[in-house]
Amino acid sequence: MDICTQKRTRRSRRRKGIKKTLRGTPMRPRLAVFRSPRHIYVQVIDDLAGRTLAAASSLDADLAVKVGGNADAAVVVGRAVAERAIKAGVGQVVFDRGGYRYHGRIKALADAARAAGLSF
Questions:
Q1: Cα separation of 96 and 75, whole Å?
Q2: Based on the number of CB atoms within 10 Å of its own CB, is 22 exposed (0-12), middle (13-18) or buried (19 or more)?
Q3: Between these two residues, 43 and 1, which has the higher pLDDT value?
Q4: By the 8 A CB rule, do 31 and 46 touch?
Q5: Alpha-carbon gap, residue 118 to 35, rounded angstroms
Q6: The pLDDT of residue 1 is above 90
Q7: Which residues, other chains included, contact 55 with Cβ-Cβ below 8 Å and sequence gap of 6+?
Q8: Is 12 among the domain residues?
Q9: Phi, psi of 41, rounded to the nearest 5 degrees
Q10: Residue 57: pLDDT above 90?
């Protein structure tokens, strides 16, 4: 097994363990993060209704992110998703890091969302 397959397998195991305990409710939806090497994507999800309440990514044209795969882009995306979630009536969320380690882009995104008004 090559190193990329091992990394994907370890991440999927971590993600499965996280998903067992985290559930997004209407009062506290789930802030789900996905990062690819080039971009970062975030959704605020109500798992009971199966609806996405707010979303943002480094591909959004209105965010004007030049490079989507770095911590600066994560900060912009974190701020944007927090503003959109608050506009949708969401103040508290449960943070789902998606099996990624809490550092770098994931931490930058979380800190920016907290600074913009989301609490988790």
A1: 17
A2: middle
A3: 43
A4: no
A5: 20
A6: no
A7: 41, 42, 43, 44, 81, 84
A8: no
A9: -130, 140
A10: yes
66 is a domain residue: yes
Token output for 67: 């490079």
Across-strand partners of 41? 34, 57
Domain count, the chain: 1
Q: pLDDT tens across 58-108, in order?
A: 999 999 888 889 999 999 999 999 999 999 999 999 999 999 999 999 999
Asked, for residue 88, whether it belongs to a domain, the answer is yes
- Is residue 54 one of the residues assigned to a domain? yes
Q: What is the CATH number of the domain that holds 113?
A: 3.30.420.100
Q: Which helix (H) or strand (E) holds 57?
A: strand 51-57
- pLDDT score recorded for residue 68: 87
φ and ψ of 32, to 5 deg: -100, 135
Integer CA distances (angstroms), 30 to 37, 62, 63, 66, 70, in order = 23, 24, 22, 27, 23
